[in-house]
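worker-03 picked up job from queue 'complexes'. Input manifest follows; two sequence lines, order preserved.
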Amino acid sequence: MDKDQMTKKLEEVILEVLPNIENINMTSSMVDVFGVNSISLINIIVVAEAKFDIKFTDYELALSAYDTFGDLLTTIEEKLA
Amino acid sequence: MEDKKKLPVTKPLITSWQWHATLFSILSDDENAKKWIYSNYIQLRCYDIEERWTGDTILLTDMMPGSSSLKQCPYLMFSLMTKAQIESYCGNIIDFIIKTIDLGGYVYGVFDEAKILCNADVDYKFPHELFIYGYNRDKEEFYVGDFTFTDKYSHNTVSFADLERGYEVITEQDDHIFKDDYKGGRGLYVIIKNSDVPTYELDIELVKENLKEYLNSIDSKNHFRMMRNRFNDTTFGIKVYDKVLAQIDKQLHKEEPDFDIRALHVMYDHKALMYERIKYLMNNGFLKYNQQTLDEYATVATNVLAARNLLLKISINGDIEAGSRFKIYLDAAKEKEIGILFKVLAELEEN
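worker-03 finished. Artifact:
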């Protein structure tokens, strides 16, 4: 899977959890722009684990670990490498 | 009267319960108040309580001082206004709140946050404390802080009409603050920040006493006699780790598992605040600056956060078997915290 495909798939995951998000991008603040909180982040990660067939550690569930969806994408990329 | 006014609020350093989120929304950034904040909130306690609305037994976990902190903090002026006073002075609650905010007063009280404030499709009331810090007369809405709107503590808005209805439907029996503190009645609290003049120095003796009591799981009620210390089955200090672990195990293995994260969330906030306290003590000459100690204490908070987030994750994916990892995180946090806090206490005793 190349990066564009991964990005598209992650966007689908995010929209499945947060269907009201508009103009999704990988660079804006997850919290300030898209209103992600600890619970919605973990929801996104649970869906991403299933869709990408990967596992996050419990330490990787912390909201403070990600400023943007791009950071989350990087973690997924590392797990798929 | 102005059209729009917001009293200063900041992102609270800790949230845990509404009384903490309110106090820290007002005082988190205040240098004078930090001296009182870091002298307190060291001891943890927990006890079983029957939740008012669901009837479930929950492990109520909190720092000390708890809900009395708004009254006890020397940098807040805290006034009680009965419903009769409010109606006599202002005619209605909306005008009362607006006038109070105009005079620099935050408002705090119990409202129905289910059907009315959150438009939930339920046939019961959810009486909960709401923190009101501003208004917009054009939009006819108040600026408020609470947990109920987004599942996480947040600053939000509520319309004048909803707030008034949410207040009117609460009876004396529903108003748990008045019932517990004043044996009945109904009303609101006015909170005025009063921190320009320093009146409280860091109480290093209280810090040391509380650290000893926390580390040895000793009853701290005598330091907090202003609190509602009505329970004889309270667990204090480091033993709270074991009680919370046992509670999670019980919750997860019920016929219908329960995923109440509140105890773990309070524990995480306690670690986050303890980290800031140690840093403050170092930066103000009470302890020698030691980055290694701070880094090691950060792992205590990280492990408790991993446990809290694991419980959230299990509540979503239903993977109860993953619950075996709680013990790993909480044991690691407990062992590390004991080691660091004994060293901190020894250094404070030497100085």
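worker-03 released lock.
The first helix of chain B runs from residue 18 to 27.
The radius of gyration of chain B is 21 Å.
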